[in-house]
Amino acid sequence: MTPAAPEGTFHAFMERARRTGTLVVQPRMGFGTAAQMRAGLIATKDAGPGTVGTVTLDSFTRVGDFASAGRALRAGDELNGYPIVTLGPQVTRDMLDGVRDADFPVQVRHGSASPGPIFAALMAAGLDATEGGPISYCLPYSRTPVNRSVHAWREVAQRFASLAETGTVPHLESFGGCMLGQLCPPSLLIAISVLEGMFFAQQGITSVSLSYAQQTHAGQDEEAVRALHDIAADLLPSVSWHVVIYAYMGRYPATRTGALSLLSASARLARRSGAARLIVKTASEASQIPSIAENVTALRVAARAGRASGPSLGAPPSTGIEAEARSIIGRVLDLHADLGRALTSAFALGYLDVPYCLHPDNAGRTRSYIADDGRLQWAATGALPITGTGGRPKAGGLTSAELLHALSYVRDRYDTGAFAHQ
Amino acid sequence: MSPHCIAEKRPKPYAVLSSTPSDSHTWNLLFVQMLMEENGWSVTNLGACVPVAMLMDESLRRVPDMIVLSTVNGHGAQEARQVIAALRAQPSLARVPVALGGKLCVSEDRERAVVDELVAAGFDAVLVGDTAVPVFRSLLTRAAAMPGRHAGRRA
């Protein structure tokens, strides 16, 4: 058996892109059949150079309900992603044949806290790049206890790392910078992303990426992504890493102009802050799962906005994001030499506590709000090892109307054109 | 009965709020919980990815005045059929009002067709699109005012 061609790896492609300073753009695409998935990947490839393919899995597969995925396939019901386990490795190999190559790597995205069968399926299909993490794929996406997720992710990361024996460098991205998609203050996003990257490195993974999802304020986001780079440089000295930006993941603008303008702002954020890769969103994101054509448009718009922008000359003034992130990371690292155990304890102690997260293992004592200047701030820091930036001016909890307002803040701004020049 | 008795304060109406088994989205659940609490309801929010058995157990432990399913991942129409079949097959839950809302299909054009199917399958309300929240509010008011609530429901 021939091992996966080393020149076809995600890792090598990203290394080249980083050297040439190209912003790599990538969709969040997933379709329920091999034919649609192949067509989506070909369209993504044709939108390049500088694009990476995505195979996003369906949510039955994510929760390990392979029976329902199979039933939907037989009944012709539309799945919200690619059922990689149910279709089997040969179907996936054929689907990728002639599409995935040295200039067009493919990453699998799934969202599972119990990813054993998914890793087995993607490795059997010859794939070498995926994403997730014991925290970022557990808290927002499942009711799996954190310690079980840590155990499962430790096992798959070690198994994935063993691909190195075949000459391939496996790549694993932390989804930690995207917790709940919105309303998680930047310092905690950075901390979780870096901690998961360190967790992967501890399992033997040598190529990782750290994520950060665009939030509510361009200046705050730039400060955060610069902090993420500085902290990663200190704490991940022995692995290859890059930063990946996610175009806004909360309620998306309903207008085409607003949606594409928000996407362009995310590309400028990536360029200004030195990130290497951008995960795009489409103009129809607010209403449904986007078509292939919409994804291609999004890739082109993002790539163009990225090319038109360059790195910032000076850093924005610090508001203390880096110090907060370092404080959280330091406290977690002090808990145990084994990062998996440290992460589990950190949630039990509330040193990591994600605002508005309903997972049973999340302490639920932190809250955030969007300040008048548009920055995301802490309203309550619970047991997080930070001092916070002062309480929310209004006492008492959020109302449903206020929550909806916060969730819709970016959408409303972009739909009315208020952010057009950002 | 004296007017005094009629005015007597009744306990808060109680609801179980849940996602579907494969749906990980929670902002919708948090919003619906707050909305219900502001309208005088007491809510058990089961969170993301709730297996059917867990929803059944929770609803049998304390029979609610309403069961609310909120889902936005596009698998809702498929999974809601299994949920409603299980709930209606259970004698003590067969008459509890069950509302479903969110984004139920992968594409919007299919959604209209499935609403009628899901009502026929046993849902008391299927709420999609811009009218979902106002219709849900009036549903809450009606359900809370129901005499005997779930006990005398759907005679």
Automatic annotation (TrEMBL), chain A:
<protein>
    <submittedName>
        <fullName>Methylaspartate mutase</fullName>
    </submittedName>
</protein>
<keyword id="KW-0846">Cobalamin</keyword>
<keyword id="KW-0170">Cobalt</keyword>
<dbReference type="InterPro" id="IPR006396">
    <property type="entry name" value="Glu_mut_E"/>
</dbReference>
<keyword id="KW-0413">Isomerase</keyword>
<dbReference type="InterPro" id="IPR016176">
    <property type="entry name" value="Cbl-dep_enz_cat"/>
</dbReference>
<dbReference type="Pfam" id="PF06368">
    <property type="entry name" value="Met_asp_mut_E"/>
</dbReference>
UniProtKB/TrEMBL annotation, chain B:
<dbReference type="InterPro" id="IPR036724">
    <property type="entry name" value="Cobalamin-bd_sf"/>
</dbReference>
<dbReference type="Pfam" id="PF02310">
    <property type="entry name" value="B12-binding"/>
</dbReference>
<protein>
    <submittedName>
        <fullName>Cobalamin B12-binding domain-containing protein</fullName>
    </submittedName>
</protein>
<feature type="domain" description="B12-binding">
    <location>
        <begin position="12"/>
        <end position="150"/>
    </location>
</feature>
<dbReference type="InterPro" id="IPR006158">
    <property type="entry name" value="Cobalamin-bd"/>
</dbReference>
